[in-house]
Write a structure and sequence with these properties.
Blueprint: H1 39-45, H2 51-62, H3 68-90, H4 93-96, H5 100-103, H6 105-108, H7 114-144, H8 148-165, H9 167-195, H10 209-224, H11 244-269, H12 280-285, H13 290-321, H14 331-350, H15 355-382, H16 400-417, H17 426-430, H18 438-458
């Protein structure tokens, strides 16, 4: 059992669904473990059956200048890399019984881990929350005719409520909406592909070339890999005896299938010539028959709630992991409410034109996750065969080489390879054909730096 300052509150929670999950980021004891690895398939399918996933594919054609087949290849590479990382990270949940950001303390130390935990809290718990809330509000507003602000409030209240109750209700909701979302989007896929011009050329207005392809890979990884810091949060309640391969496999499969499916659907929809105006959800559903369009809008709203239930839950978990102590047994639930309120304000601000910043947001997510994964994977390799649970809640444990390697890879990769409207990396300015390979470089630089700095510190005798 991991060493904690507090008793394992989850013992009284176990498999209860309509109950607020107590505590924050504590170790899950054996008597509270339950479930099977296969539940992770729909847990990671449902939150990606939403419009934000579709819009990645739309960007790959309209903004990055890819034809359908080029876009599909780039999307497959980016999503595949994110799913591969998810396989490794999810598989560790049952063995250690702690959230993903608590496992991050091994690579960064108790205090140093506050840096990536803060990145996740802000960019995922608030940034992703706002992004998905906007698309859900657009869809609900078009479907019902209610004002966008009213639709946004309803969406935010629903998804924050699931996150407040916690782990078991989140899993139950993802399982409930999975068949609804899957059936609707299967029919939508058939309708869109029947109209799409899959053999058409790439649009001349986009980036095009290898640069556009790498931007496609980067945004796809930014979306799929954006879930990586959540991975063990949803596998930590599984019994220790479950297969690590099965655990990682179901999680990775759900992530890969859903992300590639809907992003490819988005790429196909972008090849259809039309004159529809309005929000991105309006433009997308304009290609569908009226009844199917209404069902799709409902599915988009449900998908936004499914995605943000995870975003708020894990964002709050990461915030608690920073080390800020709250004197309540339901500290994660309280933080979830706060994140819901902050996310609502950000979404309200972005409601008029959130699509304009979506591309940049996806790339920025990938910027920090690349170096984070590099340090995490090397640390896991160096600690193989070593007992680690005694370090996870040890406030005196430090690992500054992890923090240094993370920052070095992040800063260097952004300065040289970032491809943003407000800042273009120094090397990309000279060779614009590179596109944006910041996350690749960040991963490799941080992994190499950490291996060199920490080999003696972490390798078992």
């Amino acid at each position: 059992m991991a060493l904690t300052d507090d008793p394992p509150l989850a013992s009284g929670y176990a498999d209860r669904v309509i109950a607020v999950e107590p505590g924050g980021n504590e170790y899950i004891p054996d008597d509270a473990r339950h479930g099977k690895p296969r539940q992770l398939f729909w847990t990671w399918m449902s939150p990606n059956l939403e419009f934000a996933t579709i819009f990645i594919g739309v960007l790959s054609v309209t903004a990055f200048g890819m034809n359908f087949w080029q876009a599909t290849l780039g999307l497959a590479v980016g999503v595949g890399l994110g799913a591969a990382a998810h396989f490794v990270l999810s598989g560790r949940g049952p063995a250690h019984g702690v959230p993903q950001m608590v496992l991050g303390r091994l690579a960064f130390g108790y205090r140093g881990n506050a840096l990536p935990a803060a990145f996740m809290s802000i960019m995922c718990g608030v940034g992703w929350f706002a992004t998905n809330s906007v698309s859900g509000a657009w869809a609900l507003s078009t479907l019902t005719g209610m004002p966008k602000l009213t639709a946004l409030i309803l969406i935010v209240v629903a998804q924050t409520g699931f996150a407040v109750f916690g782990h078991n209700l989140v899993h139950a909701f993802e399982r409930f909406v999975f068949p609804i979302l899957a059936v609707v989007f299967v029919v939508v896929t058939i309708a869109i592909f029947s109209k799409a011009e899959l053999g058409g050329g790439a649009p001349s207005s986009g980036v095009g070339g290898i640069g556009g392809f790498l931007l496609t890979v980067g945004t796809a990884f930014g979306y799929a890999g954006g879930w990586n810091p959540y991975a063990a949060d949803y596998s930590r309640y599984l019994p220790k005896t479950v297969s690590r391969v099965a655990t990682g496999g179901y999680a990775a499969a759900g992530l890969f299938v859903s992300c590639l499916w809907l992003s490819t659907l988005g790429a196909a929809s972008a090849t259809i010539v039309g004159a529809a105006q309005g929000s991105p959800t309006d433009v997308f559903t304009a290609n569908l028959p009226d009844v199917l369009a209404k069902l799709t809008l409902l599915a988009i709203a449900l998908g936004a709630v499914a995605a943000n239930a995870l975003n708020v839950y894990s964002g709050a978990m990461a915030f608690v992991t920073i080390g800020i102590e709250l004197p309540v047994r339901t500290q994660r639930a309280v933080v979830s409410i706060c994140f819901g309120a902050i996310g609502f304000l950000v979404a309200w601000w972005a409601l008029p034109d959130a699509a304009a910043s979506y591309e940049a947001f996806l790339l920025i997510v990938a910027y920090w996750i690349g170096p984070w994964l590099g340090v995490m994977f090397v640390d896991q390799y160096l600690r193989r065969g070593r007992k680690i649970d005694d370090l996870l809640y040890n406030r005196a444990f430090t690992n500054w080489p992890g923090v240094a390697a993370f920052l070095f890879g992040l800063v260097l990769s952004v300065l040289l390879f970032s491809h943003q409207a407000k800042f273009t990396g120094y090397l990309v300015r000279r060779v614009p054909e590179l596109g944006d390979i910041t996350f690749f470089v960040g991963f490799l630089v941080s992994a190499t730096a950490y291996f060199l700095l920490a080999q003696r510190r972490t390798t078992p005798a």
